[in-house]
Design brief:
This protein is of the alpha+beta class. The chain is built from 6 helices and 10 strands.
């Protein structure tokens, strides 16, 4: 009887895991210019779990994109940015912990990549809350070589090089920051945020607030809606 019960439990757990594997979280990032939808990578489980927790806690709602650089990236997630004084310096706020680095060679800084900001700690551990979305630029052979030369220890695959020459991104960041997700649509929203006027600290002159939510959805539906292959 105990043996039968054991196998029932194992089958039940297996069915639950199989059911879970058919679903994933769709992230919606809302800006004044519209929404972007994104997925988070299973290959970076610590970053995925941490980001989902903060989103479910509504941590990001009404925080600002406090650092924008056109042709590079847009950054947010500083808790000090909520109700921040106009023009004040931002970027030092945190949640009191870091997330261990999960830097993988096949997760790279193409346009729309979600990546974790960090300080200069030698372990390359990520901020517990601040993140950036890659804008980057489309690179020709010469500019791609220049960026790759800034990162001589990193090996770029032919596929990655082609992405940088067609979609764009920031290859000099590869291998140094954890990429944990990807924007699936409306990449022009990144451009709209990035091109706003900013001060010398790269803070937008006009506050740009965000809201982020997540919804569990069948992977097949995400693929159908956004063309993302899991």
């Amino acid at each position: 009887m105990k043996k039968i019960l054991f196998f029932i439990i194992i089958i039940t757990i297996s069915q639950q895991l199989k059911a879970q594997s058919k679903r994933d979280y769709l992230i919606t990032i809302t800006t004044p210019w519209g929404e972007m939808h994104a997925i988070l990578y299973d290959k970076t489980p610590k970053h995925k779990a941490n980001f989902l927790k903060l989103v479910n806690d509504k941590f990001y709602n009404d925080l600002l994109f406090h650092r924008i650089i056109d042709g590079f990236m847009i950054q947010g997630g500083d808790p000090d940015s909520k109700n921040a004084k106009k023009g004040g310096m931002l970027g030092n706020g945190d949640v009191g912990y870091k997330v261990d680095a999960e830097i993988l060679p096949d997760l790279f800084h193409k346009k729309g990549a979600l990546a974790a900001a960090r300080d200069n700690n030698p372990q390359k551990s990520s901020s517990g809350c601040q993140y950036y979305i890659v804008q980057g630029k489309i690179l020709n052979n010469e500019t791609l070589k220049e960026q790759m030369a800034r990162n001589p220890q990193h090996i770029f695959t032919d596929k990655q090089k082609q992405v940088y020459k067609t979609i764009g991104g920031t290859p000099h960041l590869d291998g140094n920051y954890t990429v944990f997700g990807q924007v699936l649509d409306n990449l022009w929203v990144i451009d709209s945020v990035a091109k706003q006027p900013r001060n010398r600290q790269n803070r937008p002159l006009k506050d740009i607030a965000m809201k982020i939510k997540c919804k569990k959805m069948r992977k097949k539906k995400i693929t159908k809606l956004y063309g993302w292959e899991f």
